Amino acid sequence: MTARYRMSAAVLLAVALAAGCTTTTTSGQDKQPAASAAAADRARAYMRAVLASDWTTACSLMATARRGDCHDRHPTPQPPDPAGPDIGPVLLDRPPTRVPATSAHPAGWGVMVTHTVTWPGKPARASFTALRMTDAAGAWWVEQREDVADSDLTHAADPILSALSREIR
């Protein structure tokens, strides 16, 4: 074995180890992307229902403790307003992020969704909403919904966390 060959083999081994080419076991870390994706899918379904004024579906996607308030505010379905704005598709704005518990809400995943609103004769406007998603009984539920302010988008390092951390006064 030549010195050149040994050196190449050593460099190859070092690169493989540095790149993480080792055997590992599955851990809880591997489940996080799947959990955040499931929470994001459920958040988009909730916002699609809200924007369609389908409160039966929207309220059913809320956390158990929040459903009663939702049904009280929206007791009967309302027909869509034909003079209302055109609503664009609900899209995930950025990857979900972990959000810590507050005095009013448990920890969970924060999801920011966006959609466009276009009123007749006016330019389209983007709307951003942050949703706190919590896991219960193997499913993801909307625990909190907050509009994302321009200041959250402009000045906060994490606009999702900023919007979901505001204290209601």
TrEMBL record:
Keyword Signal: yes
Signal peptide positions on this chain: 1-18
Keywords, ordered alphabetically: Signal
Name of the protein described by the UniProt record: Putative small secreted protein
Species of the source: Streptomyces fulvorobeus
